[in-house]
Q: What sequence folds into this?
């Protein structure tokens, strides 16, 4: 993101605008089935206009005369996707039943059933519901949140080039997952009423309680295939291994337990986790490739 760029847009701007454009087009085509479209269409239009306005202001600003404003705009333009991830995820309910008007979970349950002869998303958490084990897996799942904040912050302070690459890669993998969610309505393990109740029942220790609190207060359903928790955790892990090796090893251990936790804690089907792994690894390398191409095209 430099003043000598051929365009005032950054690589992150471009993929965010493409994603927003897709949601607007998709929501408009399927508006009779889109939920709360009258709220989300103006919201997505506003996000597009805000991105364009910020990019234009940054291009027009003279950094020699206004260095603090230049730095502030650069930071905002680098970080804004993180602020939008939550809204993009929760707003996905508006479009995730445009093509398929009912949940596809029975199909995904059948895949798990054919592999194991039972449903791991229900049975693992029930059969091994020891307090310490529950805490371990809920802690690993919770670690996703400090990881997604902590590593970008560290790289922003220590390795700015790696920071911008990470934000692009995170955004790309998130948008890829959100695109799939908009097509395939999958609730995950909580599709089973008993599993849904378990994710909302306070038990064990503090981290189990924290995750129960989060899921009690999150009305969103859907967005299970593939597991974005696993995909994004792997992007963070691979980036950390590349730039902060010791932290990368820690992230690797956490990501291992987090991957199991998505099933143990009843949030995902086993097949969701498998494709979360594929999405994270494949998305990381694909994002790096696209980032290089966009950076070259942008000058």
A:
């Amino acid at each position: 993101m430099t003043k000598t760029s051929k365009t005032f847009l950054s690589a992150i701007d471009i993929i965010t605008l493409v994603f927003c454009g897709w949601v607007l087009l998709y929501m408009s085509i399927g508006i009779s089935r889109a939920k709360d479209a009258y709220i989300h269409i103006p919201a997505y239009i506003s996000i597009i206009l805000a991105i364009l306005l910020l990019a234009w202001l940054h291009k027009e600003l003279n950094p020699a005369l206004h260095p603090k404003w230049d730095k502030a705009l650069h930071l905002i333009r680098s970080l804004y996707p993180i602020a939008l991830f939550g809204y993009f995820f929760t707003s996905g309910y508006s479009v995730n039943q445009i093509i398929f008007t009912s949940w596809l979970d029975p199909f995904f349950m059948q895949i798990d059933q054919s592999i194991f002869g039972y449903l791991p998303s229900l049975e693992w958490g029930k059969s091994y519901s020891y307090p310490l084990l529950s805490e371990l897996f809920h802690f690993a799942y919770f670690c996703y949140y400090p990881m997604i904040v902590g590593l970008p912050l560290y790289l922003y302070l220590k390795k700015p080039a790696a920071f911008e690459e990470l934000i692009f890669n995170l955004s790309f993998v998130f948008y890829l997952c959100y695109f799939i969610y908009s097509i395939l309505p999958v609730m995950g393990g909580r599709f089973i009423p008993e599993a849904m109740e378990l994710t909302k029942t306070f038990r064990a220790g503090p981290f189990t309680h924290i995750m129960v609190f989060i899921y009690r207060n999150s009305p969103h359903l859907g967005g299970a295939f593939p597991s974005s928790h696993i995909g994004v955790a792997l992007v963070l892990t691979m980036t950390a291994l590349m730039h902060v090796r010791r932290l990368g090893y820690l992230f690797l251990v956490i990501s291992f337990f987090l991957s199991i936790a998505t099933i143990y804690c009843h949030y995902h089907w086993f097949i969701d986790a498998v494709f979360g792994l594929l999405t994270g690894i494949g998305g990381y390398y694909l994002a790096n490739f696209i980032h290089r191409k966009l950076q070259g095209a942008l000058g």
